[in-house]
Specification:
With 470 residues, the protein is α/β, with parallel strands linked by helices. Helices cover 28% and strands 21% of the residues. It is built from 17 helices and 19 strands. The strands form five sheets. Strands 1, 2, 3, 4, 5, 6 and 17 form a seven-stranded mixed β-sheet that branches. A five-stranded parallel β-sheet has the order 8-15-9-10-11. A hairpin with a 4-residue loop joins strand 5 and strand 6. The chain is globular.
Length: 470
């Protein structure tokens, strides 16, 4: 007779709610094409995309840096779905090919059996829509999650109207919900020129392109052909705004600080560079080869080189006072980060004043995850998407190393904001919960499931005012 340990985790994880040969995360052109090809070959395919993103989540700058420049149109999901089909007609072809297409559905966690997760019934992907969360199984997973913008802090960058080039393009084309008429673009590479062309095609004025170097990253003739002013060897000295955010930006020459130029605008678009959106696979850790594949921008995009990244961080931070916000979600300033202090809304005991990045470095290299725990930088709803790279650069400068030598802060599931009411809506049956202990293993504060509702439970909690299993 087989005897099962009621406290072991074997067999306690339920089977996935659904099973597919292939799951594709990201319904852009690369993801949609991959899904269609697999479906036509006879595979069962699930294609999910987090768009249309809920208006509240867009306000938290997830998954892209939208910068508070979305119109009220983002609060009308049906309209946004229509916009998505206009932006990517291949979605209809995916339906026709038999692909299970689910829009407005996020992938929040990836779990693959390994040494630490041997009890899993198989590889699982956690997904959630506005109503419920579920686990789906797969034989192969393709991530076509694209790329996200690299953000750098400068004076006044925490106002509405400062956004990333990817967020700008998404609001303008994917959602048709951009509240901006005149922009300034930071950067002069391909991404910056693409942003300028897109803006001009859509009737949005470009007040200027700002580059910290003394020449543009691309052929100067390409920028000149757009008829947009290009400010070489300039950085941002100040950003003024009103109740609706950015209204103007003051540029300062990097060769003569007294030389200033003011540009009227209602948005500043950061086009410094992008980095692959690989949060799912990063949070999952080591994944067996062949099980997960990256396609599209998530596989091909490269972040700017170390020298370029440091140059931007240094130039944009040149006029930034210590109180300049680095992590917008948690209101962590440059001074807080370098002083390794918690944000101002938390208590700061006197002994914390003796702590700084210098004292941490005396014990060895500082890791962004360590800095995150001590300062909360990167712990907000955007999970560091706006501050990962700049925290990395600040730590690199203080340690005298290159940014590539500093690890980036890790991601943890859920990698997208999911309401607890959705995430925790799991139906656990008695067979699955048998043997699970409810509390944290403190002898006086837990009751095993097997004892709930029995005389043993009543005896266990005598004098404690009732059961403690809830």
């Amino acid at each position: 007779m087989k005897i099962l340990d009621p406290h072991a985790i074997d067999g306690k994880f339920p089977a996935p709610d659904e099973q597919f040969d292939l799951i594709v995360v990201g319904a852009g052109r690369a993801g949609t094409t991959t899904a269609i090809r697999a479906a036509l070959s006879g595979a069962s395919v699930l294609l999910i995309d987090e768009n249309p993103v809920a208006g509240a989540v867009i306000g938290n700058d997830v998954p892209l840096f939208f910068g508070g420049r979305a119109t009220a149109a983002v609060h009308h999901p049906d309209r946004l779905v229509e916009q998505l089909f206009r932006a990517n007609p291949e979605l209809e072809a995916a339906f026709d090919a038999g692909v299970d297409v689910r829009l407005g559905t996020v992938a929040w966690g990836l779990y693959v059996p390994n040494a630490a997760l041997r009890a899993l019934p198989g590889p699982l992907l956690g997904i959630a829509d506005a109503e419920a969360s579920r686990m789906v199984g797969f034989r192969r997973l393709v991530l076509a999650t694209g790329a996200r913008d690299i953000a750098m802090a400068f004076p006044g960058w925490d106002q509405p109207g400062v956004m990333g080039a990817q967020g700008f393009a998404a609001l303008l084309t994917r959602y048709d919900a951009l509240a901006s008429q005149r922009i300034v673009i930071i950067g002069s590479g391909d991404l910056a020129l693409q942003t300028a062309r897109l803006a001009l095609e859509r009737g949005i004025a470009v007040a200027g392109i700002v580059e910290i170097a003394d020449r543009t990253e691309v052929d100067p003739a390409l920028a000149e052909a757009l008829g947009v002013p290009v400010f070489l060897a300039y950085t941002i000295a100040a950003t003024d705004g009103g109740i609706d955010g950015v209204e103007r930006v003051t540029l300062a020459s990097l060769t003569d600080d007294a030389t200033r130029t003011t540009l009227e605008c209602d948005a500043i678009v950061l086009a410094i560079g992008v980095t692959p959106a690989t949060e799912l696979i990063e949070a999952a850790g080591t994944v067996a080869n062949g099980l997960v594949q990256l396609v599209g921008d998530s596989a091909t995009v490269q972040a700017p080189a170390d020298g370029r990244l440091l140059a931007w961080a240094s130039a944009l931070g040149r006029h930034a006072p210590p109180k300049t916000i680095v992590c917008q979600c948690e209101a962590v300033t440059r001074a807080d980060l370098l002083g390794v202090q918690p944000p101002r809304y938390l208590d700061r005991p006197a002994r914390l004043a003796t702590r700084s990045l210098g004292t941490l470095l005396a014990d060895g290299p500082a890791h962004p995850d360590q800095i995150k725990r001590l300062t909360r930088a990167g712990m907000g709803p955007c999970q560091g998407r706006r501050c990962r790279e700049q925290v990395r650069c600040l730590l690199a400068v203080e340690q005298g190393v290159l940014p590539s030598e500093v690890p980036v802060a890790s991601f943890r599931a859920p990698v997208r904001p999911v309401p607890l009411s959705v995430l925790a809506d799991w139906n656990e049956d008695a067979g699955m919960t048998a043997g699970w202990d409810v509390w944290f293993g403190i002898p006086t504060q837990w009751t095993p499931y097997a004892a709930i509702g029995t005389p043993e439970e009543a005896e266990h909690v005598t004098g404690l005012g009732g059961t403690l299993h809830v």
